[in-house]
């Protein structure tokens, strides 16, 4: 084996995909996954090596770039790619592993969508209950006051008095329903589990990889090398992060800059971890800013305007904070902060309030 072949073999060693390098009719190098699948001796004839895997020998004769099914039930896909004038790289993909991986990704996505839908419904119930409680209470008081006045001034207007009684009963019924919704939503407390914020960022980005690619967004990450341990409900915190990322993607789609960018940084200071999600989109006007975290305020054609208000309440459930700043280079930045766990004891670090 010459020097170049040895270097190639070394480089191939770290890859997960099954790969081999061929030089004409000869096998030059195999990486470990290929060796596990189809053991072979570098220097031997490629056709002999390929023989045990049904269809691989003929795949070696197919034109470069062509994807050929092999294996007894076509479970592998072989493809040859030219490396240089002499060397050819053979890629052998196990379709079952790829499909299994794809299925797992789809299941994860579906799981997240389901959880985030049910969280949203529940949070929406809570927001609605909160918003409706006040006008309904006020209406009930007004109706009761009206009935008292009517009873004093016109005690014989029995039909009107009975109608007011019915109106009060209807409003009380609406208020009971709201009370039940509030009870239900308030009983849902966040889970308390130790989790790593850095891993959470990577998981959230993986769930949005299609959207990030489709919008051709450049990602800039500034994350600590070691994990950042915090305590909380992974699903809820991921929902916050995904909401912020989706808002950034929406902003970049609606008003596309030349070089769409999302920058994420995570820093730990004073016992708190602060995560920033910035984008170089159109930013936020002072009018929008004034209502940013209020429910039902949206500037999007189909927006519900609930995302940020829900995210803020999720952060508050975690003794955290969520806020907004303007990026110096244009666009905006959302920040969330959480107490970190002291790694040694796994206890939340107490804030220095002195
Ligand atoms: P929705 O996404 O349904 O509009 P949100 O509460 O998540 O609800 O967002 C409220 C509003 O905040 C959005 O309609 C938009 O005007 C503004 N906003 C949020 N994030 C961004 C961002 N990254 N860039 C520009 N505007 C944003």
Automatic annotation (TrEMBL):
Keywords noted in UniProt: Kinase, Phosphoprotein, Transferase
GO molecular function: kinase activity
Keyword Chloroplast among record annotations: no
Pfam families linked: HATPase_c (PF02518)
Superkingdom field: Bacteria
Stretches assigned to the Histidine kinase domain: 127-342
Catalytic activity: ATP + protein L-histidine = ADP + protein N-phospho-L-histidine
Keyword Secreted listed: no
Listed EC numbers: 2.7.13.3
Gene3D superfamilies: 1.10.287.130, Histidine kinase-like ATPase, C-terminal domain
Protein name from the UniProt record: histidine kinase
């Amino acid at each position: 084996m010459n020097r170049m072949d040895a270097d190639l073999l070394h480089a191939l060693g770290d890859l997960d995909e099954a790969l081999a390098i061929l030089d004409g009719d000869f096998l030059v190098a195999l990486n470990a996954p290929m060796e596990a699948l189809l053991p072979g001796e570098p220097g031997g004839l490629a056709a002999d090596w390929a023989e045990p895997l049904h269809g691989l020998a003929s795949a070696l004769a197919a034109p470069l770039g062509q994807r050929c099914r092999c294996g007894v039930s076509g479970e592998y896909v072989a493809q040859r790619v030219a490396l240089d004038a002499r060397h050819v790289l053979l890629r052998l993909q196990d379709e079952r592993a790829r499909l299994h991986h794809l299925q797992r990704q789809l299941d994860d996505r579906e799981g997240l969508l389901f959880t985030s839908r049910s969280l949203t419904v529940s949070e929406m119930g809570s927001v609605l209950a909160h918003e409706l409680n006040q006008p309904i209470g006020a209406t009930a008081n007004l109706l009761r006051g009206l009935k008292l006045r009517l009873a004093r001034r016109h005690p014989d207007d029995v039909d009107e008095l009975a109608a007011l009684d019915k109106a009060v009963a209807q409003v009380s019924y609406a208020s009971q329903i709201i009370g039940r919704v509030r009870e239900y939503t308030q009983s849902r407390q966040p889970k308390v589990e130790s989790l790593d914020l850095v891993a959470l960022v990577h998981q959230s980005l993986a769930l949005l990889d299609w959207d990030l690619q489709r919008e051709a967004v450049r990602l800039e990450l500034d994350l600590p090398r070691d994990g950042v341990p915090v305590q909380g409900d992974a699903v809820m915190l991921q929902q916050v992060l995904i909401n912020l990322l989706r808002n950034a993607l929406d902003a970049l789609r609606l008003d596309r800059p030349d070089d769409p960018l999302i920058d994420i940084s995570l820093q730990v200071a004073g016992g708190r971890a602060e995560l920033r999600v910035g984008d170089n989109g159109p930013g936020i006007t002072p009018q929008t800013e004034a209502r940013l975290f209020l429910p039902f305020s949206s500037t999007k054609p189909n927006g519900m305007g609930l995302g940020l208000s829900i995210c803020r309440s999720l952060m508050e459930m975690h003794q955290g904070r969520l806020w907004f700043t303007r990026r110096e280079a244009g666009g905006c930045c959302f920040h969330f902060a959480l107490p970190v766990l002291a790694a040694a004891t796994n206890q939340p670090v107490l804030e220095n309030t002195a």
